[in-house]
Automatic annotation (TrEMBL):
Catalytic activity: myo-inositol(out) + H(+)(out) = myo-inositol(in) + H(+)(in)
Compartments reported by the entry: Membrane
Name of one Pfam family that matches: Sugar_tr
Name listed for the protein in its UniProt record: Major facilitator superfamily (MFS) profile domain-containing protein
Membrane spanning stretches: 12-34, 78-98, 105-124, 130-150, 162-182, 194-215, 310-337, 349-369, 389-412, 424-447, 467-485
Main localization of the protein described in the UniProt heading: membrane
Record InterPro entries: MFS_dom (IPR020846), MFS_sugar_transport-like (IPR005828), MFS_Sugar_Transporters (IPR050360), MFS_trans_sf (IPR036259), Sugar/inositol_transpt (IPR003663), Sugar_transporter_CS (IPR005829)
MF (Gene Ontology): carbohydrate:proton symporter activity
Signal peptide region: none
Top-rank lineage group of the source organism: Eukaryota
Keywords assigned: Membrane, Transmembrane, Transmembrane helix, Transport
Protein topology in the membrane: Multi-pass membrane protein
Length: 537
């Protein structure tokens, strides 16, 4: 029997698998768009032509100035962090888009918004450039939520983790591509130095938007909108089975029944996302919001955004190469990670990953403040200590890439019941971007040395000691995963719904195994419940 989109069946046919891969690959371009866009700005604002076009002219010698042009600190933080403001609102926009025009057309609209933002960034006026960043951010934010939503609603249950995980892989590939393109154009002496890396983003949007137009709409969304004929057609395409086949029929019955049970609770407003009824909406919403927040609190973007400057300040001379190595480790280990999700399980991977990252961060912090210390009179760079630092940063990235990187998106895509899925996912993704912004903004104040003079800033100057903080937050990630994350490996979205209604978090793996052993579905469960009620009358 074919596993199909919802996967009430046991296996998965080759044709269905091929179709899932096509669907996942197109949708994954959303990840490339996300990773590439966040990865370009740092390089663009350091380019000579960009600085002469947008920077401030000064006759005084100023650190970091190129051709007497520099970017003042407030403008730098504006142009870098304004994207996160856009992405935050874009993630919130994903709910009306995903529920009103649908997952498929929502993604196409997000691509149009993104292209508008990219187009504006090709202009040579500061205000247009900044507005372009915000608008592109809105597109990225909406895409970052709608892609995993679409993927999890359309993939067969047995490989859902792998398919949504491919989105994370695409994010890392996007960041890697950004590094390569920036490196190739950075020495050009015309506007094309920065316009080329920015304009390349049209390609990602065209592939994603164009591909989505050819793909079927999510059958779950169509049933949610009571469009049974279209849902049947979409399921038949996704499952590669005739529209009137028993497999398609069973799938429709299962999704409709779970939807009906939710509708009986009549709870699908934003307030209802925070109410605990029989289906534990509030618990699920907080799980999504906190999970995405904790993903950022692992400290990953400290390395991604500030890696180069951090390595330099730690006395590592070829810091640029180290950050390319970090990018490559991130991409390669994500390839390993996506294959583990449906084998090892979500909960277990998060627990192992949190523990692994925690140990690495404490080792980096301890080595950094002892053997690796570079400040103080006569302190020399300790080469073996530097190597240990780099090695443990790579181990840390490897743990992230095989756990919290992909798994956070997989879980966010599967824990919400259909009636509040778009709202729950958009709140969770917005939390990711809010923390992303907060950590990105606060990091220089935590890590860098204080500066004096009229524009001087007082900072905490933690330097490598900041890894004690990341170590502690990773320990919190472990406890969060232990108490909040259920094991959902191999279950259909409707079975997950049932699991949240019927099981505790700690006992979720046992309940899951029982469900799989008895091939428990929403439909069976409801009819057993009805029989029980009858026998009690
Ligand atoms: C995170 C991003 C991060 C990226 C790194 C994503 O899952 O949400 O903030 O930059 O992984 O690979």
């Amino acid at each position: 029997m074919a596993g199909g989109a919802g996967g009430t069946g046991e296996g998965i046919s080759t044709a269905s698998l091929a179709w899932s891969i096509i669907m996942a690959s197109f949708a994954a371009f959303g990840g490339i768009l996300f990773g590439y866009d966040t990865g370009t700005i740092g390089g663009v604002i350091a380019m000579e032509d960009w600085l002469t076009t947008f920077g401030t002219f000064s006759t005084e010698p100023i650190a970091g100035a190129v051709n007497n042009h520099y970017l003042a600190a407030n403008n730098k933080s504006l142009v870098v962090s304004i994207l996160s403001a856009g992405t935050f609102f874009g993630a919130l926009l994903a709910f009306p888009l995903g529920d009103m025009v649908g997952r498929k057309w929502g993604l196409v609209s997000a691509c149009v918004i993104f292209c508008l933002g990219v187009g504006l960034q090709l202009d040579v006026h500061w205000a247009t450039f900044v507005v372009g960043r915000v608008i592109a951010g809105v597109g990225v934010g909406a895409v970052s939520c709608l892609v995993p939503m679409y993927q999890s609603e359309c993939s067969p249950k047995s490989i859902r983790g792998l398919i949504v995980g491919l989105y994370q892989l695409a994010i890392t590939i996007g960041a890697l591509l950004a590094t390569i393109v920036l490196n190739a154009t950075k020495n050009q002496h015309s506007h094309s130095a920065w316009r080329t890396p920015i304009a390349i983003q049209f390609a990602w949007a065209f592939i994603l938007g164009g591909g989505m137009m050819l793909l079927p709409e999510s059958p779950r969304y169509l049933l949610y909108k009571d469009n049974l004929p279209a849902a049947r057609k979409a399921l038949s395409r996704l499952m590669t089975r005739p529209e009137d086949s028993p497999e398609v029929e069973a799938e429709i019955a299962e999704i409709s029944l779970a939807l009906e049970a939710e509708r009986q609770l009549a709870n699908n407003s934003y307030i209802d996302c925070f109410r605990n009824t029989a289906n534990r909406n509030s618990f699920r919403t907080w799980t999504g919001i906190l999970l995405q927040g904790f993903q950022q609190l692992t400290g990953i973007n400290f390395i991604i955004y500030y890696g180069t400057t951090f390595f330099l300040s730690a006395g590592i001379t070829n810091a640029f190469i180290v950050s390319i190595i970090v990018s490559v480790v991130n991409t390669c280990m994500t390839i390993v990670g996506v294959q583990l999700i449906d084998r090892v399980g979500r909960r277990r991977l998060l627990l192992i990953g949190a523990l692994g990252m925690c140990v690495c961060e404490f080792i980096i912090a301890i080595v950094g403040v002892t053997a690796g210390k570079t400040t103080g009179s006569g302190a020399k760079v300790n080469i073996p200590a530097q190597r240990v630092l780099i090695a443990f940063v790579c181990f840390y990235i490897a743990f992230f890439a095989t756990s919290w990187g992909p798994v956070a998106w997989v879980i966010t895509g599967e824990i919400f019941p259909l009636a509040i899925r778009a709202k729950g996912m958009s709140l969770s993704t917005a939390s990711n971007w809010l923390w992303n912004f907060g950590i990105g903004y606060a990091t220089p104040y935590l890590v860098d040395p204080s500066t004096t003079g009229p524009t001087g800033i007082k900072t905490a100057h933690l330097a490598v000691k900041v890894f004690f903080i990341w170590g502690a937050t990773c320990a919190s990630c472990f406890f969060f995963a232990y108490f909040f994350i259920a094991e959902t490996k191999g279950l259909s979205l409707e079975q997950i719904d049932l699991l949240y209604r019927e099981s505790t978090i700690i006992g979720s793996n046992k309940y899951r195994q029982k469900m799989l052993a008895e091939n428990e579905t929403f439909a069976h469960h409801e009819s057993d419940k009805a029989d029980d009620e009858k026998s009690h009358v």
